[in-house]
Design goal:
It contains nine helices and twelve strands. The chain has 322 residues and is of the alpha/beta class. Keywords: Signal.
Length: 322
């Protein structure tokens, strides 16, 4: 049984100069150490520790070792941990605004993904604030593409296929292309393919490398459909308990981590596609007719989402499209 982690474990260390109060924060994330999101989080934690002279230490628990990804938001909200990382769109059932970045073809490409983030951020922060949470920073995944065991040339090729869903939007995408959605977390993807639970998915090249997609999939189609984002969440009460100087350090380094993470994402996007190809996968653009069909499916998803998200959703999309 997983032990309950205190909001902010405080240790007292004796030094030659006297007693120094040290705050230790446990930070769960669902992704492995080789993933650039995790690498960036470890950089953030190291920089905070250095800048505070060791008075604030963030201990990163990667690869869902402390909490599984669907549990992390609640753990932060309830104070079981003071800080954690989530895939924002995985919580779209709680707040449709969090799904905006996972809507296929609404904001394809790096520049559009950043522009959408700027439009989405005020709505997202306002809704999290009501729950005692702040998003410290948010970093996108590379453009999403389709992985499959068999060639995909038309939408008809998806009919009856078991398609991985990691949020409500990708589940609905699977339905609209004629596939059967199956919810599978990132760490469970290889086993799900091997067991026949899924035979296709839409995700980034980074996830493909993390899961060694070449061991269970033969094709990666570069659709650049969307750039879902992770968010590093902090419990507001835990944050307020820090001395003001430490609060400012955390905010300053979070801003740097966000910029650094987006730069890493661009490089990872190219590197991971090369890695997939080097390991024997076919990496290609989808046929033009299929890409056009994807665009139509994407437009239908955006329309459905605007109705679900209400006035805020419509205002967000309008602001992005200005």
């Amino acid at each position: 049984m997983r032990s309950i982690v205190t909001m902010a474990a405080v240790a007292v260390a004796m030094s030659a100069g006297g007693a120094v109060a040290q705050t230790k924060w446990n930070m769960p994330t669902a992704y492995p150490d080789g993933n650039y999101h995790t690498q960036n989080i470890r950089w953030f934690a190291d920089e905070v520790k250095k800048a505070t002279g060791g008075k604030l230490e963030i201990i990163v628990h990667s690869n869902a070792a402390l909490f599984k990804m669907p549990e992390i938001k609640r753990a932060v909200q309830t104070g079981q941990v003071p800080i954690g990382e989530i895939l924002l769109s995985a919580y779209g059932n709680e707040d449709p605004i969090l799904e905006a970045d996972s809507l296929p073809f609404l904001a394809a490409g790096y520049d559009n993904a950043w522009k959408l983030y700027q439009a989405q951020r005020p709505y997202m922060q306002a809704n999290f604030k009501k729950q005692g949470i702040t998003v410290l920073y948010s970093v996108a995944w590379p453009g999403q593409g389709v992985y499959s065991k068999a060639p995909i040339n038309t939408l008809a090729d998806f009919k009856g296929m078991k398609f991985r869903a990691y949020n409500a939007v990708t589940a609905r995408l699977a339905e609209l292309i004629g596939a059967q959605p199956a919810t599978v977390q990132s760490a469970e993807v290889p086993q799900a393919f091997s067991a026949g639970v899924i035979s296709a998915m839409i995700t980034s090249g980074a996830t493909g490398v993390d899961t060694k997609a070449w061991e269970f999939s033969k094709f990666f189609y570069e659709t650049e459909a969307m750039h879902p984002r992770n968010g590093v969440l902090i419990n507001d009460r835990a944050f307020r308990r820090l001395p003001e100087a430490q609060q400012q350090i955390v905010l300053n380094i979070a801003e740097l981590a966000e910029k650094r993470g987006w730069e890493m994402m661009q490089k990872v996007s190219d590197d991971t596609k090369m890695t997939l190809a080097k390991n024997g996968m076919t990496v290609a653009k989808p046929p033009a007719a299929l890409q056009a069909d994807y665009q139509k499916v994407g437009a239908a998803l955006v329309s459905e989402w605007e109705k679900k998200a209400g006035a805020d959703g419509a205002a967000l999309v309008a602001k992005y499209r200005q």
